[in-house]
Write a structure and sequence with these properties.
heterodimer; A: alpha/beta; Rossmann fold; 6-stranded mixed beta sheet; 4-stranded antiparallel beta sheet; 12 strands; about 35% helix; about 30% strand; globular; B: ABC transporter involved in vitamin B12 uptake, BtuC; about 80% helix; about 0% strand
């Protein structure tokens, strides 16, 4: 079966500097793949390259087997939904209108119904009519996640969806993305919380300095050696009743 | 819909008042005569002088209000207005060149030159908008184009052999809808109609842009074309407004702000009410320009700036509370 997303030796230069260097990864239907790595290691740029938002110097990005560079705007949106890291909203739109922007092609009543369902998923039904400027950063993040869910795309790509959220909301985000995968969706997510990544992702891609240093299950990739190389941390995975925990300290 | 119906009624009332009142006070008998015998002297005042003038003011105001709404949506910037990308300045330059070249005597020459300037700038800005997706870079180019237009207009003054031409250009730039005929209004519709159509088509793209360029690019909407439609539509509307009435500030900036709150900030749904509010503002400003007793009739651009600036400061003060959040 064709993977929802394939990156094949992708490199991206920004202002003459190689920011992403020969990254290859795949995300298949039914799995949550996490991209982890220190700040500035190229996670966001790799994702933007995967979606055709930035020009690739080398390699190819494919959505459902089709090169992203050859896809029209409508086809690309049908194959992938994207939640950028940047959470600025230009105007004080009510939450449900933001969520409804996930389904711009549907008639307004249908889009609203989908938006309300998505807001219910992120536990924001009560604030559906509230303007996004009148919310906390975490609440706004959940509204934007609802918009991503409302796209209903077979591949969801979320850049730092858990950043700035309280612990309960972080686990909610992880559960929602897992639920999408369980229903046959493909999910690519970047996370900074390694414990959250270890618990919620089927596979992890560890990046450092623009390249991939490890790909595999959390147990395989969050080894002592990789933690040292990619995060400059001393530590490792601990098995607990509540799941895996990454415990580490600075070198 | 209720909001739009209310605004339309308000606009019709404003135009009725604008037609009924003016420098020449009419008696009840004269009003009666104007309605029964349109060819009579009072009829001429109402139907050949004031009515086309009120329509011209409404058209220009609507074009500016709509263009302002489109620009604020496209650039996600509450400070954007129709002239932000340099269209007004280049349009004014076109008019200044035509006046300085002595073309003012040929009917329609100034208007065509102004529209030509706007279209030239519009093509350039569309070209840039297709390449620069981030609003700040587009705004910076607009500032540069505005400055260039202003500098070249100053150069026209500088090189103009006759101070009369300079005075004429200055007076034209201050904006007016005096002495507009019905045919002027019809001619203005030629650029306004496609401008409205392009703006309306771009509307859903403007709402999507609230979430940023990357989200919009992945939304499935034809964003590349919608962005170009927005810029081209706003350029046509702005050019038409400048060609018809000179450079008129504040209407395009204030109209979207006056309406945004009533449509829960949605840039797409701001457009129609913003156009109608722009028309109301300019019909009102033109009425004020005519009835405020001054030795010389006040220029429209002067009135909108005089009343608009304090009003706008007030709006900005109130709105700033939400922007600060």
């Amino acid at each position: 079966m064709t993977a929802a997303l394939e990156l094949d030796g992708v490199s991206v230069d920004i202002a003459g500097r190689r920011v992403v260097d020969g990254v290859s990864l795949t995300v298949a239907a039914g799995e949550v793949v996490g991209v982890v790595g220190a700040n500035g290691c190229g996670k966001t740029t790799a994702i933007r390259g995967a979606l055709g938002l930035i020009r690739l110097q080398t390699g190819e990005a494919r959505l459902a087997g089709r090169p992203v560079s050859g896809l029209g705007e409508a086809d690309r949106a049908r194959l992938a939904g994207y939640l950028p890291q940047e959470r600025r909203v230009g105007w004080n739109l009510p939450a449900w209108r933001v969520a409804a922007l996930g389904a711009p092609h549907l008639p307004p009543a249908k889009a609203r119904a989908i938006a309300m369902d998505a807001l219910a998923e992120v536990d924001m039904t009560d604030l559906a009519e509230r303007g996004v400027f009148d919310m906390s950063g975490g609440e706004r993040a959940r509204v934007l996640l609802a918009r991503l869910l409302a796209t209903g795309a077979p591949l969801l790509i979320a850049d730092e969806p858990a950043a700035g959220l309280d612990p309960d909301a972080q686990l909610l985000v992880a559960d929602l993305l897992r639920a999408r995968a369980a229903r046959g969706g493909a999910v690519l997510v970047t996370l900074h919380d390694l414990t959250l990544a270890a618990r919620s992702c089927d596979r992890l891609v560890v990046m450092t300095k623009g390249g991939v240093v490890a790909t595999g299950t959390p147990r395989q990739t969050l080894s002592r050696e990789i933690l040292r190389e990619a995060f400059r941390l001393d530590g490792g995975l601990i098995e607990t009743q509540a799941g895996l925990v990454v415990a580490a300290h600075r070198q | 819909m209720r909001l739009i119906a209310f605004l339309i009624i308000f606009l019709i009332a404003a135009m009725a008042v604008s037609i009924a009142f003016g420098e020449t006070a009419l008696t009840a008998a004269q009003y009666h005569q104007a309605f029964t015998v349109p060819g009579s002297a009072p009829g001429e005042i109402l139907w050949s002088l004031r009515a086309p003038r009120a329509v011209a003011a409404a058209l220009v105001g609507a074009a500016l209000g709509l263009a302002g709404g489109v620009m604020q949506g496209l650039l996600r910037n509450p400070l954007a207005e129709p002239g932000v990308l340099g269209i007004s300045a280049m349009s004014a330059l076109g008019a200044a060149i035509a006046i300085a070249a002595g073309l003012a005597v040929s009917p329609g020459a100034i208007e065509i030159a102004a529209l030509g300037g706007a279209l030239g700038a519009g093509v350039l800005v569309v070209f840039l908008a297709a390449r620069l997706r981030e609003p700040p870079s587009l705004i910076l180019f607009g500032v540069a184009l505005s400055s260039l237009g202003g500098a070249l207009t100053a150069l026209v003054f500088n090189l103009s052999p006759s101070p009369i031409a300079t005075a004429e250009v200055l007076s034209w730039l201050m904006g007016s809808v005096a002495n507009r005929s019905w045919s002027d209004g019809l001619v203005a519709l030629i650029p306004i109609a496609p401008g409205v159509a392009l703006s309306a088509w771009s509307a859903r793209g403007l709402t999507m842009l609230s979430l940023g360029e990357d989200t919009a690019a992945l939304s499935g909407l034809p964003m590349a074309r919608l962005r170009i439609a927005a810029v081209a539509g706003a350029a046509l509307l702005t050019g038409a407004a400048v060609a018809m009435a000179g450079v008129i500030g504040f209407v395009g900036l204030a109209a979207p702000h006056l309406t945004r709150g009533a449509v829960s900030d949605d840039p797409a749904r701001t457009l129609t009410p913003s156009a109608i509010v722009g028309a109301i503002l300019l019909v009102g400003a033109d009425l004020a320009a005519r009835i405020i007793p001054t030795p010389e009739e006040l220029k429209l651009g002067v009135v909108t700036a005089l009343f608009g600036a304090p009003l706008f400061a007030l709006i900005a003060w109130r709105a700033s509370r939400s922007w600060r959040g």
